[in-house]
Design goal:
mainly alpha, rod-shaped
Amino acid sequence: MSKSTSCFALTAKRARALMLVSIILGAPCAQATDSSLNQTAQKAGSTVGSAAHSAGQEGKKIGLGVGHEGKKIGLAIGHAAKAGGLAFWHAVKGENR
């Protein structure tokens, strides 16, 4: 084995070793970056989700209020229509009430 080949072989071994060490040490750094990005994305998603939930709850309250008032109005109209229908029926029959 010549001297230049053995130096190259040692350099290649060192390069592989350095690459392996950099991969091993670099992986947690990359993972930490991804982790912080994930945490930031989760916080943003949670904030948007909370805002949407709050808006939905307010809409639900408004919808229930409208529905309850609509029910009251519908019942009042129904009772008035029934009373009008009975009055008309009694008038047609000639009954005085």
